[in-house]
Amino acid sequence: MSAVAAKPAALDVARLRADFPVLAQRINGKPLAYLDNGASSQRPHAVIEAERHYASEMHANVHRGVHTLSQRATDAFEAARERVRRFLNARSTREIVFTRGTTESINLVAQSFVRPRARPGDEILITHLEHHANIVPWQMACAATGAMLKVAPIDRRGEVDMEAFRSLLSARTLLVATAHVSNALGTVLPVREIVALAHARGVPVLLDGAQAVPHFALDLQALDCDFYAFSGHKLYGPDGIGVLYGRESLLEAMPPWQGGGDMILAVSFSGPTYNQLPFKFEAGTPHISGAVGLAAAIDYVDGVGLERIAAWEQELLGYATARLGAVDGLTIIGTARDKASLVSFVVEGVHPHDLGTILDQEGIAIRTGHHCAMPAIEFFGVPATARASFAFYNTREEIDRLATAVAAARAMFR
Ligand code: C6P
User: Fold this and answer.
1) 145 Cβ below 6 A of ligand 1
2) Residue 68 C-alpha to ligand 1 middle, in angstroms?
3) Which homologous superfamily does the CATH classification assign to the domain defined by 13-37+305-412?
4) Ligand 1 contact, 126 CB (< 6 A)
5) pLDDT for position 5
6) What global pTM score does this model have?
7) Which fold has domain 48-302?
């Protein structure tokens, strides 16, 4: 074996694009350039077909019926859970809770882990670049318990100040909760270091993986975090389905957060007996077809290969950074040394919302605004940015069109 790691084979992007029916259309008379993957990515035929197959041949409620369809649906749902476990390299399916998405996963931890434990003066440590889904649930838990939110600062690149982070860890820290990748700036956080620092003080760590799972392979046993949250719709899967990974010993000790069917073993008027993991956290009929679609999305992504995806997306990131960086009056917001494939930017004299509308006329879809990360955007002294976020099906030509259209918009407003 060679001592040098083999470079992953290049992606056949044109062939892969054909798997995504949405991408073939024209918007406002122009070929669609879909550069809003950070908000939600598109679904391949394989996912659409898996959901259709489930709905047309297998649907019934899960864990409830003795009839054949219910057993088929249950098998498909639990097979999806096992697929997620393998994707994350979690130890057990008992650690895989299906939720509606990242937001619900984080709220589950806030309600079921933090609220019962937090005492006045306890601390939750986050960073300045978090998505609102990783800020507001903690603020709500703090308001209810008297705990305090501590925020590790970032620098002008959009990197977390790790010295400050270290000093903010205290004997009162109950939980560290940080993004794995920032949705507004693209920063990849040093999560191994964050986990090591927190664990050295006995503090559990939640990672918000919404923007990480589509971009690189994960091994949660190696990462050793305690909770990990992500959404299916950013991973080429359905919306309305997501995952909370939780370390089994922690989930075991947590009370359920919602009551209803499936999360109980028995109910009498003197009280319920809760179901085992992970069902204790899945009250009510779950999004069965969503879980099936998510498993198909994971199969698809694994088939393409996350190493190859990461390599191509890094090329796109480099190309977009150079092309956009050369546009007169354009400033890139978020210049971390380790970045996932998105570029946030502002253009002198052009409001991001106007820019988004102008680009839409060209068939180019980007996101504009504060990206549900207001503190991160305001840190840079701007009210909003334009954000192009790439998937493996994007091309250099689409980035050329983006840069040309942004330059034309700048010229229009001069
Ligand atoms: N960010 C974006 O355009 P949900 O909505 O639950 O699937 O994901 C919430 C969420 C949590 N954390 C991070 C880092 C995220 O990026 C998101 C979703 C989208 O950036 C929509 S606001």
Assistant:
1) no
2) 37
3) Aspartate Aminotransferase, domain 1 (3.90.1150.10)
4) no
5) 58
6) 0.97
7) Aspartate Aminotransferase; domain 2 (3.40.640)
